[in-house]
Design brief:
Length: about 475
């Protein structure tokens, strides 16, 4: 998407007989260089729509199931070259699986509304370009993965945080229908996207101010480096997908309940202690502003959707601030909102007839105040132990082996059971469907309902449960 295709929907490459070497991951998308982002050291370019395919050395006549990994990064950073997602351990953990990671456009190059900018009518897809990139990648995989030993009818998508938000949106998207059959969604839900283009329009106005431009023609002439600088300056003007009523339904929960995602099996993952992870990425100085701005946006939504809930949340923050710091109170409510959105995504999909399983991650972080969630779960399911150590984490091999075995069963469409003779030292596990959850903690594994553990603000639960 370069040159005249900047801020345009992705297009297939023209057919060619040319052979080229693909030894290394392609450039990451233009993005914000947060303090804790590994990929700030990796080459970045607008020419970023590439993917990586990971296969074992053993070839078989039978096509293998495929895992497509959607990277995390709050739609402003991250990419397929992240070693946490793309380690040499993958083929050892899943020797009978084809793994794929891929890039999509981020930030002001991937999610921005130019409808009020002169000339913006020629860029109608700019609002959700990152999602269109994801759909284009899934189409390419569906059409081509058999050449790499993969089965296009056995595609499982796996996403974390913003990657999980993306999958939750694509599950409600007609353009993505049939492109995947199973989904693993960890800590992400459609409510984490915008419900109107207003925020993206504001971002477009800020981009004009930052770059001293007034029209799309001037924006199109800006060099890549200038857009990179603007992304860094506008770091707190969050850019994310929008439920526009065209590509994505305005009410994804209602669409779930009405069966929009029919035929897809889901695992939804919920962390019990995730929010501190953000500090390691955005940095301590920006962390408080990061939490406050996100929460402020959510509360503006509740001011319109349910003033009673908005008041209850503000009262909760005020009450808790008498016991702990205001930041800690905001952290808690921000985390609970994300958890509830994920839980009720699972609930609505189950009501719509989908097979849904729930994972509740209660393992304590190795380092206090680090947070325990995305990095631990990625490491556990993908086996990227060496990379996890960069983040201050260590793989729990017993937990990892158990969950990897269950995930293989999920991919294959088998019952999510492990018998006594399948794993040494671990009792039999029967992962029951929603509303039961498989709880992973230091005490082991158990399956029970968790609704009463998700929030201290009862009206929040009631709001999502309407």
């Amino acid at each position: 998407p370069v040159g005249e295709l900047r801020w345009k929907a992705p297009e297939p490459l023209p057919e060619s007989e040319e052979v080229f070497e693909a030894k290394y991951p392609g450039a990451s998308a233009i993005q914000v260089d947060y303090d804790g982002s590994i990929l700030k050291h990796h080459r970045q370019s607008e020419d970023c729509l590439t993917l990586n395919i990971c296969i074992g050395s053993d070839r078989t006549a039978q096509k293998k199931p495929v895992i497509v990994i959607f990277h995390h990064g709050d739609f402003s950073y991250g990419g397929s070259a992240d070693p946490l997602l793309y380690s040499e351990e993958f083929t050892k953990v899943y020797p009978d699986t084809v793994g794929v990671t891929f890039n999509y456009r981020l930030g002001l190059l991937g999610f921005i509304d130019f409808s009020e900018v002169p000339g913006g009518e020629n860029y109608p897809d700019a609002l959700n370009l990152g999602l269109l990139d994801q759909i284009a990648a899934l189409r390419w995989i569906h059409e081509n993965i058999s050449a790499f030993g993969g089965d296009p009818e056995k595609i499982t998508v796996m996403g974390f945080e913003s990657g999980a938000v993306s999958i939750s949106l694509l599950a409600a998207c007609e353009q993505a229908k049939g492109l995947f059959q199973k989904a693993f969604v960890f800590y992400g839900n459609p409510m984490a996207s915008y419900d109107t283009p207003e925020t993206s329009r504001n971002l477009a106005n800020k981009l004009l101010q930052e770059t001293s431009t007034t029209t799309m023609a001037e924006l199109m002439r800006l060099p890549e480096e200038r857009l990179k600088e603007a992304s860094q300056k506008l770091v707190m003007s969050f850019s994310a997908p929008t439920r526009d009523g065209k590509l994505i339904p305005l009410d994804a929960f209602a669409a779930y309940k009405n069966g929009v995602a029919a035929g897809i099996d889901f695992i939804f993952g919920i962390p019990s202690n995730e929010v501190h992870i953000y500090k390691s990425f955005v940095g301590g100085e920006k962390y408080a502003e990061f939490i406050s701005k996100n929460l402020e946006y959510i509360l503006r939504y509740f001011d319109t959707a349910s003033p009673a809930v908005a008041k209850a949340v503000r009262d909760y923050i005020k009450e808790q601030s008498a016991k702990v710091s205001e930041l800690e109170a905001k952290e808690k409510i921000y985390e609970q909102l994300g958890i509830l959105g994920t839980y009720f995504s699972a609930k609505k999909l189950a009501e719509g007839g989908n097979n849904v399983h729930l994972l509740y991650w209660r393992l304590k972080p190795l380092i206090e105040k680090l947070g325990s969630g995305t990095v631990d779960v990625v490491t556990t399911f993908l086996g990227s132990n060496e990379t996890a150590q960069i983040y201050g984490n260590v793989l729990n091999k017993d937990v990892a082996e158990t969950l990897q075995n269950l995930f293989v069963k999920f991919q294959s469409g088998d019952e999510l059971r492990l018998y006594n003779n399948e794993l040494k030292g671990i009792s039999a596990i029967n992962w029951e469907e929603f509303p039961k959850a498989l709880i992973v903690s230091e005490k082991g594994f158990k399956c029970e309902q968790i609704a009463n553990r998700l929030t201290d603000v009862k009206c929040l639960f009631d709001f999502f449960n309407e």
